[in-house]
Amino acid sequence: MSDREELDWQLFGTASRELAEMVAEDGFEPDLILSIARGGLFVAGALGYALDVKNLHVMNVEFYTGVDQRLDLPVMLPPVPSAVDLAGARVLVADDVADTGATLRLVRDFCADKVAEVRCAVIYQKPRSEVSCEYVWRNTDRWINFPWSVLPPVVKREPRVVDA
């Protein structure tokens, strides 16, 4: 058995559809899907189509810097979603993996006092995650090779600081 979980594009299609079916069967009808960029963008888009939700928002959070390498704490990057856009909504937070759960906790806590309800949907959840997601396609304790991040970038960019 490999020390890595392999998700290709075809299996991602199956996983995202089954994840959407879990949400629908549970009776949860989100008003909007909040994607955690970057891996959650793919999940949110697929869930948006499957659940017929056109209102998609993005929250940029930096945490991972490499394979099993991360910052001490996740950091929200601008632009941060407006509280007005989230007010009173039923929100489905979408991400590719709940690894430590720190990123999901940050986003869920950000939403908590602004929205009517917040639930989380992920393709994978690891046993060590401090957030237990309501919708999980698979549980694993292995590193995951996602189809969008398994190959190196075509262009390697240096981080830029943008003046506010």
UniProtKB/TrEMBL annotation:
Listed EC numbers: 2.4.2.22
Phosphoribosyltransferase domain mapped to chain residues: 7-150
Keyword Glycosyltransferase: yes
EC class (word): transferase
Listed CDD domains: PRTases_typeI
Keyword 4Fe-4S among UniProt keywords: no
Family matches, as SUPFAM superfamilies: PRTase-like
Example of a GO MF term: xanthine phosphoribosyltransferase activity
Pfam families according to UniProt: Pribosyltran
UniProtKB keywords: Glycosyltransferase, Transferase
InterPro entries: PRTase-like, PRTase_dom
Gene3D superfamilies per UniProt: 3.40.50.2020
Descriptive protein name: Xanthine phosphoribosyltransferase
Gene it is expressed from: gpt
